[in-house]
Amino acid sequence: MSEALMSKGRVVLAGGSGFLGRALAMEFRRAGYEPVVLTRRVRKSLECVRQVVWDGRSVGAWARELEGAAAVVNLAGRSVDCRHTPKHRREIVESRLSPVKALGEAISMCEVPPPVFVQAASLAIYGDAGRRVCDESAPAGRGFPAEVCLRWERAFDSLDLPGTRKVLLRIGFVLGRDGGALPRLARLARLCLGGTTGEGHQYISWLHVRDFCRLVLWCVERPEAAGVFNATGPCPVTNAEFMCELRCALRRPWTPRVPAWLVRLGAFLMRTEPGLALEGRRCLPERLVESHFKFIYTNLESALADLLTEVRVEKAESESEAPARARLSLESPKAALQSPKAAPGR
User: Which candidate among 36, 188, 307, 317 keeps its CA 20 to 30 Å from the CA of 50?
Assistant: First the structure.
């Protein structure tokens, strides 16, 4: 019997070729589902997952994948890590609203629609909230990111899908070793450039990528999961606390604070927005806690240790094996053949 027939069903990951999509595809495979990624172009990084090309705007042949699917998860949206010029702002908005509309139309045309539609959103809807605690009932903030999120959520809310349960996840700062912002921050910290950003009072609402994947799977498999959830861990920290923990995890010394004016200058040179580093929000997953979702990683120290220690161990093992390989290459052919290490083809 084929893997597809033995699976729990097909899960369609729209915009699933990025960091979070790749992690989710592996999570659903482990859970017994058949992940299918809707992507604008086929990626080599997803060779083990079936990919279907779509344009993210109009209903096409890709819509057949939704018929009888177990779930749809929409992660599509242009990165906000850029200068928010008028052109980029239009792209950011369009890349979020159009896929929601296209997926909604495709689901409404299904004879057997997917029973659940999980839509990615962002905690940025709360704006630069300072020390204010934001649960799912907190009001929206101000500024371009919050306005985008409002339009994004309204587009999802407007979908009339009576046969499909709708879940909206306001995603926080997801920590992973294979993508997102953590590898970049770790590189800076290794170069002793991992100081507090600005005053360091801005909050970071973080979530380990493992818990993010478990959360999406939980939303798919729990019929009672519906509505808005803050997809973040229960213990947000300030930027100062985060950078301190990061330096400790990487065994780097204290690093001077990076003043706000220097952050703005660096953001200009890197063609991005300083607000991504200088603004923050203190969010709590109130509804997830009430629904008894269990996080694996609630402590930032343990989360960073899991994501960064393994990298250090692998590097150390690789370095320790190098002298052994060098010694082996100097042995006689007979000795090399007698050594079990000389059989790489087995």
Answer: 307
